[in-house]
Amino acid sequence: MAVDYESIGKRIKHYRTEKRLSQEELADVVFITGRHISNIETGAKPPSLDLLILIANALDVSADALFVS
Q: What value does the mean pLDDT take over residues 17-45?
């Protein structure tokens, strides 16, 4: 089963906007650039598992919430 990085990116964007965070603000929390967050949210670049966990923690959601809708 292939991982749908575009869907994961859409969920990250959903939870990020729900918390009223900009891409830059989330990026600062997880030690990457705003451009990298943008690439993840559009599915252009897949996040590493470690980064996915950092993002989930920063957004106060489970990693499962990012994988499954």
A: 98
